[in-house]
Amino acid sequence: MSGISSGVDIHPAWLPSEAFGVLGSKRTLVVGSGVLVETVRDEVRGASSSYGGRLLDGDDDGSGHDGDHGADVVLGTGAAFGDDARAAAGPEAKAALDEAMAVAGSAGDREPLGREGFVVARRAGVTVVVGGDGPGLLYGMFHLLRFPELLTGPGRPAERHEPAHDLRMLDHWDNVAVHPVMGQVERGYAGGSIFYDDGEVRADLSRGEQYARLLAATGINRVAINNVNVHAREARLLTEDLGEVARIAEVFRPWSIRVHLSVNFASPIVLGGLETSDPLDEKVQAWWADAAARVYRAVPDFGGFVVKADSEGQPGPFAYGRDHADGANLLARALAPHGGVVHWRAFVYNHRQDWRDRSTDRARAAYDHFAPLDGRFEDNVIVQVKHGPMDFQVREPVSPVLAAMPRTRLAVELQVTQEYTGQQKHVCYLGPYWSEILRFRPWGAGALGSAGIAVSDLARGGLAAVSNVGDDRFWTGHPLAQANLYAFGRLAWEPELDPSAVLDEWIGLTFPGADDAVRASVHEVMDGSWRTYENYTAPMGVGFMVRPGHHYGPDVDGYEYTAWGTYHFADRDGVGVDRTRATGTGFTGQYPAPWRDIYESLAQCPDELLLFFHHVPYGHVLHSGTTVIQHIYDTHFAGFEEVERMAERWETLKGRIPDDVFARVAERLDEQLGSAREWRDRLCTYFYRKSGVPDACGRTIY
Ligand code: GCV
C-alpha cells in the first residue's frame, strides 16, 4: 500500500496498490533528506510492507547491505550520493550509480540536471534513480511505476528526464459557496468540490491529499484552488481565510505542488474598503503589496495569483481607462519580492455583442486586446491564453495570440473538464487534440528551425488546464475521464509524447493485471473518442450548437441570436463564419504565414476547420471529395455508429475489469448513445430542412 491510506470507497485512479507491486517487492535504499525525500521513503515503506520488499534506510547495520545481498533499487537526490550513501548502496550499485551521476551532470552544451529532473539507470541488476533534487526524486519514483520493466531484466542505458515546462498547472473552478447557477464547481461534472463544502474549506482534506499524490504521479506542480470567477465569498480567501489556504497548501507541499489563488481585481474595494482599484493609484498598489506580503507570511511557498479581468462581467482595469498590462503589472509588482507569478488570462471579449453586428468577431478579441501589449508585461506576468480563439470547442484553430507575443511569457490553457466535449457523460479522450495543439507550428514546419517552432515552445509560461475533478468516488464522474487528467500532466511534462502511448500508460496503471485483450478493448473504446465526439456534434470547426447555459446536448440555434458572439450563420444556401481578410472579419490576418494564407484560401483551408473560417454553400466540395451537406450527414451517422461500437466493445469487458468501473461506464455509455442519437438527428434534420438537400444515402432524416 501507499503512504496515504485511501478511503475505502474512493477509486484509486492510476495509483492502485498493485501499481507498486514490483517496486514493493524490491530492497530499496532511499538517500537524501527533506520533505520530498520523506514522501518517497513513505511510499517505498508502504509498498514494501505490502509486497515483501524492504526499505533499506539505516535499518539493518545502517547500510543497504544484508550479508551479500545489496540494494536492488537505489533512489536519491544527486547531492546525497556522498561516500556514505555510496557505501550504503553497495558495490553492485556502482556501475548504475556512476552512469546515472554522469548523465545527470553537465557535458558540452548540456546543463546539470534541474531540480525536477531525474535520471534512471540499470546495471548489474540494480536500478538507480538520481533526482536533481527532491522533486526529481519524487517524479523518478513514479516513473518506475509507469515502467516497471526498469526494475527488472537486463541493464539499460541511463535515461535523463526533464520537464519541458516549469509550470504545469491545474486550475480549479471550485466555488467556496455554492453558486446559485453554477453550483459548487463551475463546469464541474464530478460532484462537489474536494476543497470546499457549502461555504467553508473542508475540515477533512484527506481527498485533497490523495489528489495531490495522483497529480504528483503525473507531473503536475501547481494548483489554483478557486474559480477564476471570484465572487464575494471566494474573494475572502485572500484575506481572512488565509489560514485555510495555508491548510490546503500543507496538503500539497509533500507532493511538490504549490498553491495559487484566483483573485478579484476589485479586491481593494471589495475587501480593503478603498474607493478604487485603479492600478495606477498608490493606495491600491500599497494594498496589493500588503496583501501579497500577508499571503507569503501564511504560505511561504505560495505560487501566485490567477486573474480573469474585464471578462464575462469580472472587474478589471478598463473601468479606469487602463489596459491589461497596467492591471497585470500591478499584481506582478506586489508578488515579485516574494517570487510569485501572476497568471493573467487573455480570455477577454465582448459578451454583450449585438448579434446583428457582423463586424464584431469574438475570435479576434484576445489578439486585438493583447498583441499590442507585447513587451509591456513584467517578467513575472504570465499571459494565459486559451488554446483556441473561441472557447474550448471540440475543434478550433490554435489561438493566433500564441504567435504574436514573443516578448511575453505565455501559458497555453486547456480544458480537462469536458464542458463542451460531453461533460464526463461521454467518453472523449482529449490527449490527441492537445497533442495536435501543442505540436502545431504557427510558422509552418521547417520554418525558423529545422522542425519549426511549435506551440509548446512558445508556452514559456507553461501549461494550465481546468481540472475535471470533484468529490465523486471515481474523481471524474466518468471513470474513463481520469485519463484526460493523467494525459494533461504527462503532455505538460513532455509534449512530444504520443497520446496513444500515454493512454496505454494510463490503462496499464489503472487496470493492473488486465490481460492484453482487455487493455486493447479499453484502448479501442477511448483512443478515437475525441474524433467520434466531433463527428456527431458541431461540424468542421463551426462550434457551439449546444444548449445555452449548461452547454450539454444539441441546440443548433441555441446561441445564434444571443450576445455571446457564437454564431454559425446557417441559411438556406450555406453555413459557416467568413473570417477571411477578403470578405469577412479579417481574423485570418492575425496568423503569420503560411497559415494566414492557408486559412484565407477556400481551396487550401483544412476540411476540419472550413466552417470556422469560411461561409460556404452546402454543395461546396471538400478535399475529401464529398460536399459539405453530405459530410454533415455522413459524419453524424458515422459518429453515432462509432458510439454503438464503443458500447458493444465495452460490454465485452463485463467480469474482466472491476464491476464498479464496468457499471459506471456502461451507464454513461447508455447516456452517450442517447445523446449522440439526438445530436445526429437534430443536426441532420436542421440542415436538411435549411438546405432541402436530401441525404445521398437515403437514411432517415426527420
Ligand atoms: C469560469 C466559459 C465557461 C465559463 C468560464 C469561462 C472562463 O465561458 O462557460 O463557465 O468561467 O469560460 O474561462 O472564464
UniProtKB/TrEMBL annotation:
Active site location: 312, 391, 419
Gene Ontology BP annotations: xylan catabolic process
A Pfam match: Glyco_hydro_67M
Domain Glycosyl hydrolase family 67 C-terminal: 476-699
Residue ranges of the region described as Disordered: 51-71
Residue ranges, compositional bias (Basic and acidic residues): 62-71
Domain Glycosyl hydrolase family 67 catalytic: 160-475
UniProt protein name: Alpha-glucuronidase
